[in-house]
Structures are given as C-alpha cells and as structure tokens.
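All the exercises in this workshop are built on plain-text protein records. Sequence and backbone structure share a record, each on its own labelled line. The structure tokens are whole numbers drawn from a learned vocabulary of backbone shapes. The record below serves as our worked example for the rest of this section.
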Amino acid sequence: MRVEILGQERRRRWRDDDKLAIVMSVGDGGATITEVAHRHDITRQQIYAWRSELKKKGLLSASSNTLFIPVDVKAVRMDLADDPERCSGMVELRLSCGRTLRFGSAFDTAALTQIIRAVEAA
C-alpha cells in the first residue's frame, strides 16, 4: 500500500525569535491579532499561547503591551474650580491586569513608572 500526502504540511517549527517578532508585530500600525495571525497563516490562539510562553521564558516582559499616553494637564478644562472635590488633582489609572492605581497629579513620573511595572509584573 502506498500513501501520498497531498497539500501543505501544517506542522511547522517556529524559533523563539520568530515567535517574538510575530507577537510584537501586534499593534504595529494598528494591526490586530487577527490580521497578524492571517498574515502568518496561524491562529489567533497560537499568538496568545506564544505570548504566554515567551513571558514564562522571560523573553517578553509582562508589561510589553503597556501603553503610556502623554497627557497635557494644562489642556484639561478647569471650569470645575467651584467644586474642590472634583478638581483635587487625583488621577485614577486602570491597568491591564485589572488593578487600579490612584495618585495625586503631582506624583513623580519616574516613581509612577516603577510602580506600574511592579504592579503589572505581580
């Protein structure tokens, strides 16, 4: 009996460098996980699995998908000055891990960055 395999072999071997490049390409130019998966002929679930695997190996930082957005505090409307409770200068930041940080607007940004990284890694 003779057996022929027709079509493309689906089992591929990926190096960690290739996996990392694919995982990191999510978000570049607004690319979604679905678009990246389609581009590389893999499933979305594979990208999630690789992301988890790379984090466990220490090749991908836990906060690599953290996004810092510059905020111009001077541009914020200050027409609430009559209500001191509403314009106390408090900032609430919701992290991707589901935790929330609250701090004063005068908080040191370098210290805040360290706190965010520590909380995201925990």
User: Anything to note?
Assistant: Helices lie at 16-24, 33-39, 44-57, 109-121. The first strand starts at residue 90 and ends at 94.
